[in-house]
Amino acid sequence: MEYATPHKKAVPPIKNLQAKIRAAVFSDMMNSTRRAGELLGVPNKDEGTRYENQLIRKRAELGRGLLYDYFGESEYAALIECMQRYHRWWKWYGTIEDPKEQTYVLLAEAHGTLTDREKRRASEDGFAEKLDKWVAIVERRLEADEIYQRTDDPAVEEDARRMTAQLWREQKAIEETDTRFETALSLAELEEPPPSIA
């Protein structure tokens, strides 16, 4: 099947359209065709271009043209900028190792406040103690689940399964005592940028 517009020559349709669009988005978002190739699983076959993936560059040129036609150049640039901010935020968030601190960051993000204010509020109204208990239960549940996944001994597997189920119920019971658990967890699962960078 060919594609044609009035007063122009008919051309064959673009093959593997999604790969070209992905190449454009990833290379623009990462500012690197090499990194985009790594993320998309497209090996760099040209050893002479260590810092650029030629195949991704060629695909990205075609994909970018399609995206410009669809969104407009400035709208597409704004979308890429938003994705870059989103990526930087989650990369920064991933450096926070303490689960309690992560929760306070998510709550601050959801409420449009500062992390210190969320901590202060939590210590004043008892949420901090609930969070301590919740984190301890989640960590124990994850350990039990790991034992369940790795063991070959049926008795150990059954004990770990029971422990995981019990800890899951305890975790859910704590979560039901305060809506802040749901707020933080729902933000952690977002596929869209957090409110401050949207």
Fold blueprint:
Blueprint: H1 17-30, H2 33-40, H3 54-71, H4 73-93, H5 99-111, H6 115-125, H7 127-150, H8 154-175, H9 179-188
Characterise this structure.
This protein has nine helices and no strands. It has 198 residues and is mainly alpha-helical. It folds into two domains: 17-84, no CATH class; 99-197. The chain is elongated.
Class by alpha and beta content = mainly alpha
Number of helical regions = 9
Helix fraction by DSSP (H/I, runs of at least 4): over 70%
SSE topology string: HHHHHHHHH
Characterize the biggest β-sheet.
none
Poorly predicted residue ranges: none
For the terminal residues, how far apart are their CA atoms? 40 Å
What is the subunit organization of this protein?
A: single chain
Coarse shape: elongated
Counting structural domains, the number is: 2
Q: What is the number of beta strands?
A: 0
Question: Average pLDDT value?
Answer: 86
Radius of gyration: 24 Å
Strand content: under 5%
Brief write-up:
By secondary structure, the protein is an all-alpha fold. The protein has helices at residues 17-30, 33-40, 54-71, 73-93, 99-111, 115-125, 127-150, 154-175, 179-188.
Highlighted features:
198 residues; mainly alpha; 2 domains
